[in-house]
Specification:
Pfam families: Carb_kinase (PF01256), YjeF_N (PF03853). The structure is a single chain. Helices cover about 45% and strands about 15% of the residues. The chain is an alpha/beta fold and about 500 residues long. It has two domains: about 5-215, Rossmann fold (3-Layer(aba) Sandwich); about 220-495, 3-Layer(aba) Sandwich (UDP-N-acetylmuramoyl-L-alanine:D-glutamate ligase), CATH 3.40.1190.20. The strands form two sheets. It has a ten-stranded mixed beta sheet, sandwiched between helices. Strands 3-2-1-4-5-6-7 form a seven-stranded parallel beta sheet, sandwiched between helices. The radius of gyration is 26 Å and the shape is elongated. The protein starts with 6 loop residues before the first helix and ends with a helix. The structure holds ligand NPW and potassium ion. Ligand NPW binds near residues 54, 131 and 152.
Length: about 500
Amino acid sequence: MLELLTPSEMGEADRLTIAAGTPGAVLMDRAGLAVADAVATRHPLGHRIVVVCGPGNNGGDGFVAARVLAGRGYPVRLMLVGEADRLKGDAADAAARWRQRLPIEPLDKAAVAAADVVVDALFGAGLARPLDGEAAEAVAAINAGRGEVVAVDLPSGINGETGAVMGVAVKADVTVTFFRRKPGHFLLPGREYAGRVRVADIGIQPDVLTTIGARCFLNAPGLWREHWHPPAVSGHKYVRGHAVVVSGPVATTGAARLAAGAALRIGAGLVTVASPPDALIVNASHLTAVMVRSVDGAEGLAGLLADHRLNAVVIGPGLGTGPETVARVATVLDGPRAVVLDADALTSHRDDPAGLFARIAGRSHPVVMTPHDGEFARLFPDIAAAGLPKTDRARQAAARSGAVVVLKGADTVIAAPDGRTAINDNAPPWLATAGSGDVLSGIIGGLVAEGMPGFEAAAMGVWAHGAAGERAGIGLIAEDLAPALRDVLRALAADAS
Ligand SMILES: NC(=O)C1=CN([C@@H]2O[C@H](COP(=O)(O)OP(=O)(O)OC[C@H]3O[C@@H](n4cnc5c(N)ncnc54)[C@H](OP(=O)(O)O)[C@@H]3O)[C@@H](O)[C@H]2O)[C@@H](O)CC1
Ligand SMILES: [K+]
């Protein structure tokens, strides 16, 4: 159930289902019934319900829900934004059935304001342009009301593919969607408008997903758990990999230590900080279980990495930008090891991103890069400026660079070069704190050291980082994250057993 379908993919799911013999009217009946059930489980008989319908099939679902709820004895009023005689197909039929018993009314703002529940059935997958006029007024009235708002499929005004607000949008408490959730339920700002998202089964068979080629997922343990193995009795630390984190100069060593601590905590067998000679004393005096080695420049790093048991490198946090960093990144990418590129390792390639991508091309070991929006725009200026959905930005960058791209933010997107994409939704607001990104790159570095594939390691890393932030709670500083990972791992291990 982790697949997320864009509105056009969902339209294809509908079409395939209808072609296989289930009439659209049956799908609409089931969708409307699911909405009615969502209202009825939350509200006792007697609560006043207003259903606000739009001109398409989303409105059609609203007509069905209104009829079911009225049939159960709720006081229901139905308001149509648009003209009843312009309704078409299944929606027109659903409207006709409603009209046999009760009227279709124009928008009555006072009634919307006074309702205990408002069902928002204005627009769903067919939203085609920004809302204005009466539709925008209806949204304003719904948002101004006191009652609970239950959105049908999507909060009206939210783009189901991108999560963007098209002019204005309904703020829902609950959204009832069908078959699978949509990217717009999780990409910001859509996530903040959707409230709790419920998925209703309307009889679409999961095998349509193969035909559609669904490649976007919600980031959750089901996506990667089978690739993660808790330590085994028969194992020893060497089978869990040896991660190296490259430290910056004496004044900026903390980032590497945060990453190293996280790599060890997530389960890498051994972790070494590769320290410039003049920072050795600083690093050594702060580290215990993490080892430290004095490494001078790119050449020194090459010497350390000649030992191929050191199978993963995290490079970038606190490193400083410039040709020296470019040289070290080249060294790290030239050999049989997994690599996590973050922060200054990314920014240092702003003048020659193609050179970086050429080094990544054809590698058999994973490369994961973890840019925030600013770093992303330095490496992929055209993709950043193209006005694409966040999922497409990350996907195109992954395809171009050959790396797994973790495009960070409150709705981090993880994309693989083969087109798989995951949207993360578990990061609490207080996770955006100094050093948090360094911890993330260390977690991912630890997971690739353990042998996880790049996409799964990146997705699990982002999820575990969010879960640790949630457990640590408000007031979190980056140092709290690695300790909080213990609870996260314990729960995952219990789940996996
Ligand atoms: N297909 C199925 O079998 C099933 C579909 N299901 C349901 O159908 C929904 C999708 O239905 P849909 O495709 O009819 O689109 P919908 O969201 O109702 O909007 C289209 C209408 O709105 C109009 N319009 C658009 N933007 C506008 C704007 N800014 N301002 C004003 N008008 C605007 C647009 O007009 P037009 O662009 O043609 O001028 C058109 O009239 C889906 O979300 C789910 O709820 C379920 O029943 C399960 C089975
Ligand atoms: K809606």
